[in-house]
Amino acid sequence: MVKKLVQASTLLREKGYIEEKFDQEGFTECVYNWFKTHDLKDKLLIRPKRFIEMDNPPKGGWKDMTVVEDWINQFSWEEQLTLVQKGQAVPFVFIDKPFIKNAVYMLQIMNGFIVEKGKKGVYEVSLI
Fold first, then answer.
1. pLDDT in tens, 64-81
2. Quick one: pLDDT at residue 6?
3. Phi, psi angle pair for 45, to nearest 5°
4. Whole-angstrom distance between the N-terminal and C-terminal Cα of the chain?
5. pLDDT-based confidence at 122, cuts 50/70/90?
6. Is 92 exposed, middle or buried (0-12, 13-18, 19+ CB in 10 A)?
7. Closest Cα partner for 95 from 40, 43, 49, 38?
8. What is the DSSP string of 80-96?
9. Which pTM value belongs to this model?
């Protein structure tokens, strides 16, 4: 007797979940614009995040966090100090976890950026 293979996409459909399309063009433009205004030696981080767990997730499957001054002020001065001391007060882009592999693959293969996987699933993007 052949058993039917259960797939996650079937469960998602049954639960009424409609996956949003990833805005690859907007994401690539964000990365391009960041490198346009930075030195050749600089790196941009790409961090995965489960948007499904957020109260008001951003549209398009990614969120620009490249202007550190815009988001670090949300923290108390003690938390800001800790972020700076740990080296976490750096520019990055959040990518919804289901899209992370395709997003970094496209940056590397289609757009020619150097992409290296670091600790905890964080990717480092550079020009050279």
1. 999 998 888 888 889 888
2. 80
3. -90, 145
4. 55
5. very high
6. buried
7. 49
8. HHHHHHTT--S-EEEEE
9. 0.83
